[in-house]
TrEMBL record:
Gene3D superfamilies documented for this protein: P-loop containing nucleotide triphosphate hydrolases (3.40.50.300)
Protein name according to UniProt: Polysialic acid transport ATP-binding protein KpsT
Pfam families, A to Z: ABC_tran
Gene: kpsT
Species of origin: Blautia obeum
Organism lineage string: Bacteria, Bacillati, Bacillota, Clostridia, Lachnospirales
Keyword Calcium: no
Entry keywords, A to Z: ATP-binding, Nucleotide-binding, Transport
Ranges for domain AAA+ ATPase: 27-132
One Gene Ontology molecular-function label: ATP hydrolysis activity
InterPro entries: AAA+_ATPase (IPR003593), ABC_SmlMolc_Importer (IPR050093), ABC_transporter-like_ATP-bd (IPR003439), P-loop_NTPase (IPR027417)
Length: 134
């Protein structure tokens, strides 16, 4: 089932963050949300996660889902190499992770240009396949 955001509005006090937002996140597809700082990306994710409720409108297709998020900030151990940092959280093989996420609805949020996001993702997967998974 697609996730549907239907005429959603959200404000914090006098600050209107989202106004009459309509969008669809297709089931089994990857979507990238990008935009300038303060445009409502994090607010939208908070609404999708159920950490906040819309002032107006509704969100359909999330009630029976297991939803998770990752931190925006870096969470690296400075005394470890890049590979060791990845090993701390990557207890499964990359092939297994890719298989597990295949067909899932994935939503990425970034301030960066979309091409940069996919380039980073491609490089990360290649690094992990080449150096971590044997």
């Amino acid at each position: 089932m697609d996730i549907k955001v239907d005429h959603v509005s959200k404000a914090y006090g006098e600050q209107q963050i989202l106004r009459d937002l309509c969008c669809v996140f297709p089931e089994g597809k990857t979507t990238c949300i990008r935009g300038r700082s303060g445009c409502g990306k994090t607010t939208l994710i908070r609404l999708l996660l159920g950490l906040d409720i819309p002032d107006k409108g509704k969100i359909e297709g999330i009630s029976d889902r297991k939803i998770s998020a990752v931190f925006q900030e870096d969470r690296l151990c400075e005394n470890l190499s890049a590979a060791s940092n990845i090993r701390l959280v990557c207890t499964e093989t990359i092939d297994y992770i890719l298989k597990k996420t295949e067909g899932k609805t994935l939503i990425f949020v970034t301030h960066e240009e979309q091409e940069a996001v996919w380039l980073k993702a491609d490089k990360t997967l290649k690094f992990m396949k080449d150096h971590l998974i044997k």
